[in-house]
């Protein structure tokens, strides 16, 4: 969120974020029109003889204020630098046309120096005490400095160069084009009330614009602000008879809202501030940086420009007094809460995505098993088809080679130290799980039907192999017994012969 130096509510105060380059008095039209209004006078940034620089509460032009961002300067953004549809009349002075100091300004400096160093109000040693008191007031930025019986006292404000409660911060420069047509309206109402009555608000704004059917009011965004205020960003779309549409430029819409009768209607809706959200041109940014704000030491200002963490997006802004510091603190707290809320939403989305990922992975595993089962069934069909096709033919060389490879694989599968041992281990684990399942009925484990069928088939083959091996061993034992019996009978006969 960018911070502005908006003018306080009062006569001659521009309501733009940076003051809009002057306050323009326009002749109110009976209905809304995007043609350039007729200007009867221009003052402010290009037409003020009093140079306020970044002046606090002056919106870069004439007018009075109570401090940076006070009054209606709520720190919503830099806003628009005037309306492009209005003609600026240079009367001399202003931020971008700083003249030499006028006699009044010279007298003000002389009177300030006299009040701080050599007052002649009492004509004795008490003038030294008065000088120290005036210095204290100047450091604080408030009060009046009496120094001469015949001259009015000097008003000490926070803009004076001796005020100690000053700092320089950084604000985000808007990046919106004038063609985007974004205008900010600040309502003295809570965000919940604005959102609940958003449709009525759009209809009211449409009526304020004259109720023209070719115009459509759209809400770009709603954002809460400190002190129970709400920022609403709107833009207006104008449709032509040929079917095309365009956004009304932000400066044109802002100029219409600044008309006296329109402004009073907006105030009845609860609008405390209206500003055009448009970006600054490079020339404007350069000119702003070249001129230190009123009351800010040029050395501090130059150091602030050097320390700018992102010169392309941020611009240094002065902070004067505790009121401005408190305002920025509230804005920062508000933005921190919004960021935390957004992080909570992102965290919830991540958790939901993780759950969806787990479910998806389970489904993928299930589909893989189904694919394997279908592959086996397809392979069985192909085997039967191939057997029928090759029925009556002799075994070919490649088929014999394939049979040898299959026998080799079968031997590897049946090897005790290979897959057979692993299978036995799995069966042992299954038995243990079944045993625990009997003890704790709530824990149940299931085996896929196809996998169980394969295990049974493999165990059946193992059982048949063991049975065949046992029968062979038995036959061998019978043969050994027969051999032993034959040997026992032949030994006595041989003994009788040799005797």
What's the SSE pattern?
Answer: EEHHEEEEHHEEEHHEHHEHHHH
Structural class by helix and strand composition? alpha+beta
State the total count of DSSP E strands.
11
Q: What portion of residues is helical?
A: 40-55%
The 3D shape can be described as: elongated
Residue share in β-strands: 5-15%
Total of DSSP H or I helical runs spanning 4+ residues:
12
Please state the CA-atom Rg, rounded to the nearest Å. 46 Å
Mean pLDDT: 76
Distance between the termini: 127 Å
- Main sheet record: 5 strands, antiparallel
Q: Outline the low-pLDDT stretches.
A: 1-100
Describe the structure concisely.
Helices cover 48% and strands 13% of the residues.
Task: Report on this structure.
The protein is an alpha+beta fold and 499 residues long. It is built from 12 helices and 11 strands. It has helices spanning 103-117, 126-140, 191-196, 198-208, 250-257, 260-268, 282-290, 298-306, 321-389, 397-414, 419-439, 449-498, and strands at residues 23-26, 39-43, 144-145, 154-155, 166-172, 183-187, 215-225, 229-239, 245-247, 271-276, 314-320. The strands form 4 sheets. Strands 6, 7, 8, 9 and 10 form a 5-stranded antiparallel sheet that branches. The chain has a two-stranded antiparallel ribbon with strand order 1-2. The longest helix has 69 residues, at 321-389. The model is unreliable at 1-100 (pLDDT under 50).
What keyword list fits this structure?
499 residues, alpha+beta, 5-stranded antiparallel beta sheet, two-stranded antiparallel ribbon, 11 strands
Question: How is this fold's topology laid out?
Answer:
Blueprint: E1 23-26, E2 39-43, H1 103-117, H2 126-140, E3 144-145, E4 154-155, E5 166-172, E6 183-187, H3 191-196, H4 198-208, E7 215-225, E8 229-239, E9 245-247, H5 250-257, H6 260-268, E10 271-276, H7 282-290, H8 298-306, E11 314-320, H9 321-389, H10 397-414, H11 419-439, H12 449-498
Antiparallel strand pairs: 1-2, 3-4, 5-11, 6-8, 6-10, 7-8, 8-9
